[in-house]
Amino acid sequence: SARDPNTYGPGLTRNLAPADAAALRDWAGWAARRDGHYGLGDTADAVLDTVHRIIDVATRHPLQVGGYKIDATMPPGMLLTVEDTDAAYAEFTAKVRVLRDAANGLPATPTGDYKALLALYADPNVLPQLNVSATTANQCADRAASRDPETYYRDIQDHLAAEPFYGPLFRHITPCAFWPISPIERPTTISNDHPALIVGATGDPAAPYPGQLVMHQALRGSRMIALDNAFQHGVFLEAGNTCVDATVENYLLAGALPSRDLTCHRAGPRPPRTR
């Protein structure tokens, strides 16, 4: 999905909290419908209460998960979804259950991907393959950032009521506040009528739908395909949606934009993961 072109820079992720909270609620509804199997709650609100209790306990004392300690600052970053397939949600649920067991004082052992994720949190080294340093350098060069740490704290506090779970994660201070140089040119303004096809999901947690619309408006010659009620980042050949796939394939093979913007609707069960 496209991002709002006006957000590139140090604040690239600052507006993600509402979209991620909506995706978390979608997962909570999925887990609630399978309460007999997962036992996290029989309604979306009950499942979210389980998540909030994990944070409350971690605020009082770190959770012990295998050989790792998890404090209250860590679960929001660990509990981010980018796919809403059954397989991805099942993996996500397994992480929540491990944290719930730890919050209840029970033995909690991470396995598979979760163990690898915790190892990343514990590793003080910079891992080049993650491209974090290059991404940060680009963001700091795109737009200037406030050098006052209090600016970021006030921003978190101003949005805390509306963004209690993910807001502090996305509005925190970045290395750009201490970057040794400032941007040397003004940000590029996106505004043209070149034809382009923009494809996205209305519930994308990594590129919120309002930002997709901003890009669509800036690219005046563009057409947009939106997959409705999909909470994933990546749609073409990922969501198993014929409406999306056929339109994109026609654009790629024949260079033909649809005559109007399209809203494609998800039907049937959630698709399996395609990669």
Describe the fold and architecture.
The protein has 275 residues and is mostly helical. Helices cover 43% and strands 8% of the residues. It contains 11 helices and 5 strands, in the order αααββααααααβαβαβ. A 3-stranded parallel sheet has the order 3-4-5, sandwiched between helices. Strands 1-2 form a two-stranded antiparallel sheet. α11 (242-254) links the parallel β4 and β5 (262-265).
Mean pLDDT: 93
Annotation, overall tally of beta strands = 5
Q: Give the spatial strand order of the biggest sheet.
A: 3-4-5
- Poorly predicted spans: none
Number of helices: 11
Shape: globular
User: What fraction of residues sit in β-strands?
Assistant: 5-15%
Rg estimate, integer Å = 20 Å
Class by helix and strand content? Answer: mainly alpha
Concise account of the structure shown:
By secondary structure, the protein is mainly alpha-helical.
Task: Indicate the topology.
Elements: H1 17-32, H2 35-38, H3 44-60, E1 63-65, E2 68-70, H4 75-78, H5 86-103, H6 112-122, H7 132-142, H8 149-159, H9 167-170, E3 197-201, H10 209-218, E4 223-228, H11 242-254, E5 262-265
Parallel strand pairs: 3-4, 4-5
Antiparallel strand pairs: 1-2
Q: Which key terms come to mind for this protein?
A:
single chain, 11 helices, two-stranded antiparallel sheet, 3-stranded parallel beta sheet, mainly alpha, 275 residues, 8% strand
